[in-house]
Each structure stands twice: as C-alpha cells, then as structure tokens.
Amino acid sequence: MDHPEYLNNPLYVCGDSYSGIFVAPLTRKIYDGIEVGDKPRLNIKGYIQGNALTDKYIDSNGRIKYANHMGLISDKIYQSAKSTCNGSYFDVDPHNILCLNDLQKVTKCLKNIRRAQILEPYCDLPYLMGILQETPTNGQSVFPIAGPWCRW
Questions:
Q1: To which protein family does this belong (predicted)?
Q2: Is 106 exposed, middle or buried (0-12, 13-18, 19+ CB in 10 A)?
Q3: Which of 29, 37, 102, 152 could form a disulfide with 81 if both were Cys (CB 3.0 to 4.6 A apart)?
Q4: Angstrom distances, CA of residue 112 to CA of 24, 59, 100, 103, 123
C-alpha cells in the first residue's frame, strides 16, 4: 500500500528450508485474495522453494530413498531398511529392533555427509583437520578454492 509503483512488478513468493511450510499456503492466500477482489491486486506469478521442508514426515522418510539414489547408501542397506521399517524411517517403533539396526547402518553411512549440501565438505573440525593433513604439499588442494571452506 505504501509503494503502489511496485504493484505491476511480477511477484514470486520465495523461501527455503523451514519456510517451505508456509510459502505455498501464503501463495495460495494471495491467489484466493485476487479471486475475491482483495486490494491491492498483486501481480503474483508463482512461488519458488529451494531445499524446502514441506512435510516433516514425508521429507524425513524421503531422505533414505534419496541417499540410496545418490549412491550414499548401498542397495542392500536400503532394501533391508525399506523392508524392516516398512518404508517408514521417521518416529520408528522402539520395539522394531531390525529397523533400528538398519537405521544405524544408514546413519553410519551418512555420518560425514552434510544433509542440506551433500557435495560440500562437512564442517566438522576434526574431519577438516584430517583432510588438511591429507592435502598434497605441492600446493594443490582437494578443494576447488584455496584452502578449506565451510558454509556455517
């Protein structure tokens, strides 16, 4: 309302991470407001979500399948966990020992993998120090930029 000069600009509602919970519903409210004639009329074009949490249960369960598809856990471990956990890896029955054992294997495989950025270095200091000790002394680095970096 304070800046009517921007009303014709295309509007995209955007967010990542936890904002995935409210980006789509907020966008729906904007569209619904346009349909009933709410003012000001926004020039909504859509929404964008990056690495967004959308449903805690579905997203958490999808991580195991994704890890398998990315080659981070073997087909054997994935198939066993899928079978013993009945495809549900979140809020597991504490009496389902076979599932819990399989999930321990999954956790071990993913120990040094960053959940949000699987291709970036894990920013655990002992892990980084180990990489630094393995870095060739001829000036080349295992990192694409000089020295280790982390997204904190």
A1: Belongs to the peptidase S10 family.
A2: buried
A3: 102
A4: 32, 20, 20, 15, 9
The token pair that represents 27 in the structure block: 């966008």
CA atoms within 13 A on the CB side of 47: 20
pLDDT, tens only, 107-139:
999 987 877 777 776 665 565 556 555 555 544
**Beta strands, E only, 44-126:** 44-52
Report CA dihedral (83, 65, 93, 116) to the nearest 10 degrees: 160
- A 10 A CB-CB count for 126 gives 6
Q: 46 vs 30, 38, 89, CA distance in Å?
A: 10, 18, 32
Token pair for 22: 């409210």
